[in-house]
């Protein structure tokens, strides 16, 4: 994070304005600089209401405060990252920062200062672009170039936290005394200011706590996840309607079609869309999406809309491009469906997290033994993990602000933990027969099937958030036929 002011007419006497190489204007006249300072309307927003999740973010900060009494806690949003030359990637605030503030702007930092009875929270942000020194029109991140930022007063109203100028924060942190923890990996400038005050072990404890805090979702989060899933359902419908155009082009038509829905109804896609046709479905994270889409093949579409508050869906359907499964495709698909049914049935409060994985893997293993693709008995295959040649991955993961949410949580609270109401996870068994796998009959080769749904643990069992998309093979065919007229 730079603390230097932009080179503007105010500093021109000491150093000439730094121009972009090959820019068309050689400089700024005194007259133009003076002209640009005035004649602008007051645009301060005075009737702002707090963001919808303000009560939830306050409760999350309170829980964080209670866990680390007497310590200064620093949670950065992160900085812009260069894509190429002078263009940047679209910014996405760190999950920890977004979870605790609801704010999504670059360079932001949440600081919890210890007090006698807890902590005092302050959100540090870049203020409005300065019109007096010309920053708003001369700086590459000025208001006339990238759009208006909220003033600090506006930000305080929106997020329910006092707001201060982030450009002063690094200096303040250098002078700080007492124990400090920071979420690492997002803001090198902030970390440098704290380099002699923090330890990797203590900082990791902070990151782990914030990851585990997200294991159980509050009502706001569950509502956002349902929004993400509902938009994702519509995105899948969009794709089915244009499969003929994808056949005429490539998998990229599918990717682009889903992306349109994500951008119209949400912030973005929650992860790189997997639009895998034919044997590409056997590549777990196929995101090149540059292959052909052929009638007679399967399309494995793994995609999720991310809401404006960063919560993402994660849904997979494996669809027959022609609209009808072949006999061998249906055989494999129905086996995966049966495995998913067993996995979903195992999701309930009090169950071990691993139960849904074990239930789904058992069904898939039984099918592989029944088909003669691996020598039984089933218990031996499971003990040795031999089914993994064709099942490959775990059967699910936590879902939320990250597609693989809560990843820093301790193993004993996540994979070895117990399911509780409010947890949201995916159930996504799959079978993948690689095109070059000589251990299976030729008719299986190149077939990849995954079915994935987003499951909320409820007080009395579970609720499939993505039930709006059919799963059973005959229902999928009828759904596709209806959409394609």
TrEMBL record:
Signal peptide: none annotated. The gene is pepPI. Residues 1-26 are annotated as: Disordered. It catalyses: Release of any N-terminal amino acid, including proline, that is linked to proline, even from a dipeptide or tripeptide. Keywords: Aminopeptidase, Hydrolase, Manganese, Metal-binding, Protease. InterPro entries: Aminopep_P_N, Creatin/AminoP/Spt16_N, Creatinase/aminopeptidase-like, Pept_M24, Peptidase_M24B_aminopep-P_CS, X-Pro_dipept-like. Its cofactor is Mn(2+). Belongs to the peptidase M24B family. Residues 52-191 form the Aminopeptidase P N-terminal domain. This is Xaa-Pro aminopeptidase. Residues 1-14 have a biased composition (Acidic residues). SMART domains: AMP_N (SM01011). One of its GO terms (molecular function) is aminopeptidase activity.
């Amino acid at each position: 994070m730079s603390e230097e002011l932009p080179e503007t007419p105010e500093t021109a006497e000491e150093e000439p304005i730094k121009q972009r190489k090959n820019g068309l204007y050689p400089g700024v006249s005194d007259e133009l600089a003076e002209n640009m300072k005035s004649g602008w309307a007051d645009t301060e927003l005075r009737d702002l209401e707090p963001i919808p999740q303000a009560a939830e973010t306050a409760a999350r900060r309170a829980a964080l405060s209670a866990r680390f009494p007497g310590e200064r806690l620093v949670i950065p949003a992160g900085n812009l990252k260069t894509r190429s030359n002078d263009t940047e990637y679209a910014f996405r605030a760190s999950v920890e920062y977004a979870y605790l503030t609801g704010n999504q702007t670059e360079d932001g930092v949440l600081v919890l200062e210890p007090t006698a009875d807890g902590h005092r929270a302050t959100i540090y942000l870049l203020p409005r672009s300065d019109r007096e020194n010309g920053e708003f029109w001369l700086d590459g991140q000025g208001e006339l170039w990238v759009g208006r930022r909220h003033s600090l007063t506006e930000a305080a109203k929106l997020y329910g936290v006092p707001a201060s100028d982030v450009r002063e924060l690094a200096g303040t942190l250098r002078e700080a005394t007492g124990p400090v923890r920071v979420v690492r990996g997002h803001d090198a400038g902030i970390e440098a200011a704290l380099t002699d005050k923090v330890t990797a072990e203590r900082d990791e404890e902070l990151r782990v706590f914030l990851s585990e805090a997200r294991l159980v979702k509050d009502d706001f989060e569950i509502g956002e996840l349902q929004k993400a899933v509902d938009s994702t359902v519509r995105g899948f419908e969009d794709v089915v309607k244009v499969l003929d155009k994808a056949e005429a082009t490539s998998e990229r038509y599918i990717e682009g079609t889903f992306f349109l829905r994500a951008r119209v109804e949400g912030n973005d896609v929650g992860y790189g869309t997997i639009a895998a046709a034919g044997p590409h479905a056997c590549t777990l994270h196929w995101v090149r999406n540059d292959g052909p889409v052929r009638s007679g093949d399967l399309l494995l579409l793994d995609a999720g809309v991310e809401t404006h508050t960063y919560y993402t869906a994660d849904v997979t359907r494996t669809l027959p491009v022609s609209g009808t499964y072949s006999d061998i495709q249906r055989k494999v698909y129905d086996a995966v469906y049966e495995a998913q049914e067993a996995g979903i049935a195992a999701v309930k409060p009090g169950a071990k997290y691993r139960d849904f994985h074990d239930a789904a893997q058992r069904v898939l293993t039984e099918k592989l033994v029944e088909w003669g693709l691996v020598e039984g008995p089933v218990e031996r295959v499971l003990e040795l993990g031999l089914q993994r040649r064709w099942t490959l991955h775990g059967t699910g993961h936590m879902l939320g602000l990250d597609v693989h949410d809560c990843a820093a949580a301790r193993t004993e609270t996540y994979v070895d933990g117990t399911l509780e109401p409010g947890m949201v996870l995916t159930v996504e068994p799959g079978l993948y027969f690689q095109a070059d796998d000589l251990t299976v009959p030729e008719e299986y080769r190149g077939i990849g099937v995954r079915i994935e749904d987003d499951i909320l643990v409820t007080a009395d069992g579970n609720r499939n958030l993505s039930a709006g998309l059919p799963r059973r093979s005959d229902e999928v065919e009828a759904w596709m036929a209806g959409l394609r007229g």
